Amino acid sequence: MEIAVAVIGGFSAPLLFLSFANLSYFQVVLYGVVFLIGALVGLEIPLLMRILKDHLDFKELVARVLAFDYAGALVASLLFPLFLVPRLGLVRTSLLFGVLNAAVGLWATWLMEPLIRKGSLTRLRAQACVVIALLLIAFVKADRLTSLAEDAMFADDIVYSKTTHYQRIVVTRGRAGFQLFLNGNLQFSSTDEYRYHEALVHPAMALAAEGGSAPRRVLVLGGGDGLAVREVLRHPSVESVTLVDLDPDMTELSRRFLPLADLNRHAFDDPRVHVVNEDAMLWLEREGPPFDAAIIDFPDPNSFALGKLYTTRFYRLLKSRLAPEASVAIQCTSPLFARTSFWCIIRTVEAAGFEVRPYHAAVPSFGVWGFALARRAPFDPPARAPEALRFLDPQAMAAMFVLPLDLGPVPVEVNRLDNQSLVRYYESEWRRYE
Question: Which residues face 173 on adjacent strands?
């Protein structure tokens, strides 16, 4: 059983990666693997109790077996997500646990040698050694296994990839340009990203200028690619930009992949830009000088870890770090494909005490994309845009704030830390397009 768990469990991650990339019935493979591992692990406890029944009193036997089982499960459940996956990646961690299972099986052949027939003893040890060798070879070749799966998942050639402590970064390149993917989700295409980032940044910067003095201190949350910072730096009034992004490998990407540095116009080399690699929610809890404008460019809320960054708690923390007339721009997923999610974000920002104007822009790589512009006091949509932009002018700026009927409001819950309703909305809406 230990050897079987080593094979199925150890190779589960590469098998599931390859299945996800190549098979239409991925869920059958997923649930099949889970069922087999669960059945084998579940059989171990009664078998172990049967082996030990002649050596221990029943009460002590049950207590010992269950205590060690729970303690082992606790250690493994902490090691797997907190220590091993961030350092080794999911594939190598899966293979390492397989090696550990096979090693336990091999060790057990000495512990239980009197109970095993001589012929079976040699066979079991040989099987365990072969499985350990195969798993170690796969551990060394793990990057190649991941690349095989990713080559099938992405339409264009992969030119950069890295598994960080927080996510999988993949950059692909085609004839039209290059694309950035985080955990398999497209973040931008170099061909049309300017439409997205101009729409995200310039309404907030224009509104902040209309509220009084031109924005001097700007906060960017997320946006580790530097493209939002590039747009912020177009405004001559800006004296400092603070970018808070959790993943240092993301904010260093433009130094490792030079086409991105060219695309963001070497934004991170500007002395006005200060990068903070920290959880944005924890960073906002600390006191500091107020900002004149904030740009929020987080990935879509497809997990509870990201969903917390779209809650009333988060937006109230943000409000405490803003000047009275400061403006905020937030990317809000697609109001066409995820209409309920879009309006959940709008209503959540309102519940945090902001006046909000939703708006949208067409980005070919994404389709219709939604944003929110917010400030403490009521306001009219800004009418001005910087010159020499590729997408926005005064007419395009005004048109973004006119929502057609099929993007209009729908009833939603407010997204709070204790309900995370946004993540549920998002999963159910985008699942229709998988």
Answer: 157, 178
Active site residue 297: yes
| Residue-wise pLDDT tens digits, 135-186 | 999 999 888 877 777 777 788 899 998 888 888 899 999 988 999 999 888 9
d(CA 324, CA 336): 33
The answer on 249 and 215 residing in a single domain is yes
**Model confidence, pTM:** 0.83
Q: What would the pLDDT profile of 195-205 be if each residue is shown by its tens digit?
A: 999 999 999 99
Catalytic residue among 143, 297, 380, 406: 297
Query: How much of the chain is helix, strand and coil, in % rounded to 5?
Result: 55, 15, 30
pLDDT at site 433: 76
- Do 155 and 144 reside in the same domain of the chain? no
Residues 177 and 220 both lie in one domain: no
Neighbours of 263 (CB within 10 A): 22
Backbone angles phi, psi at 424, to 5 degrees: -65, -45
For residue 28, give every residue at least 6 positions away whose Cβ sits within 8 Å of its Cβ, in sequence order, or none: none
